[in-house]
Amino acid sequence: MSRPTSLTPPPEAVVPQPHPDAPSPGTELGEHYSDCFGCGEAAPGGLRLRTRAGEGVSVDAEFTVTAQHQGAPGLAHGGLLTCAFDEALGAIGYMLHTTAVTGHLETDFRRPVPVGSTLYIHAWCEAVAGRKIYSRAVGRLDAADGPIAVEAAALFVSVGLEHFVDNGRAEEVRRVLDNPDLIKSGRAFEVNP
Ligand SMILES: CCCCCCCCCCCCCC(=O)SCCNC(=O)CCNC(=O)[C@H](O)C(C)(C)COP(=O)(O)OP(=O)(O)OC[C@H]1O[C@@H](n2cnc3c(N)ncnc32)[C@H](O)[C@@H]1OP(=O)(O)O
Q1: What is the predicted pLDDT for the residue at 120?
Q2: Which keywords label this protein (predicted)?
Q3: Domains annotated on the chain, with CATH
Q4: Which of 31, 48, 79, 83 is the most buried (most CB within 10 A)?
Q5: Does residue 130 line the site of ligand 1, with CB under 6 A?
């Protein structure tokens, strides 16, 4: 039987502080994995989301919609917009010093997002309960104070390295284990200024 999904933090949840070694506000977080569709430079047609540490447990990101991201003519595909939010919300893990995967993600599409426009995404953590991370994000059109185009809410769940090693296709896992520099998020925890 599937578990009930919920984006409401339980009563024992706490509002988190950034990890003591979290990147300082404004720090570029870069790609977490070179082949990641959300942020990787090597991913063909990828979103190439650029993410920076924000104030508190938050991140800011920009995503420019290209012709490869269309759903309707000249408009961004909703699924790809959701991907951009998944990526931005996942980057909150940098601020908590944990690696987390998406358990549940909801997206509200408020306005169409044209090709050529840039979404300014602000994502923040509302609460943490054990391994569960409750976060929200808002995306504004063409400026950090532009009109809201997309909003999202998510539950991420912290996982260990074994999540990826045990579940990923052996070929890619081996390539990454042989060259850990492909996983930039691991390195990011070491180069924090
Ligand atoms: C090689 C190294 C690579 C490193 C690369 C870094 C890449 C980063 C990538 C980022 C890429 C971008 C991001 C991406 O795209 S990540 C890709 C998309 N996401 C996934 O593939 C995740 C697939 N799901 C799972 O693997 C498991 O279900 C997880 C790990 C999530 C939990 O299974 P696990 O067996 O571990 O734990 P648990 O079942 O005891 O659950 C724990 C708690 O969580 C609660 N819960 C769980 N799900 C839900 C739900 N849907 N609604 C409400 N609640 C939910 C659950 O009730 C429980 O609560 P409680 O009973 O404790 O109160």
Answers
A1: 98
A2: Apoptosis, Cell membrane, Cell projection, Cytoplasm, Fatty acid metabolism, Hydrolase, Lipid metabolism, Membrane, Transit peptide
A3: 50-191 (3.10.129.10)
A4: 31
A5: yes
**Cα 102 from chain centroid (whole Å):** 9
Phi-psi region of 130 (alpha: psi -120 to 50; beta: other; left: phi over 0): left
Global confidence as pTM: 0.94
User: Is the pLDDT confidence value at 4 over 70?
Assistant: no
Query: Nearest residue CA, atom 59 of ligand 1?
Result: 132
Express each pLDDT in 72-91 by its tens digit. 999 999 999 999 999 999 99
Nearest CA among 61, 28, 50, 51 for reference residue 144: 61
- Relative to the CA of 36, which ligand 1 atom is closest? 11
Beta bridge partners of 89: none
In 3D space, the residue among 134, 139, 133, 135 whose CA is nearest the CA of residue 108 turns out to be 139
Protein residue with least CA distance to atom 27, ligand 1: 103
Q: Please give the backbone phi and psi of residue 48, each rounded to the nearest 5 degrees, phi first.
A: 50, 45
**Does 165 score more than 80 pLDDT?**
yes
CB of residue 155 inside a 6 A radius of ligand 1? yes
Residue 187 has pLDDT above 60, yes or no: no
Q: Rounded to a whole number, what is the largest CA-CA distance in the chain?
A: 46
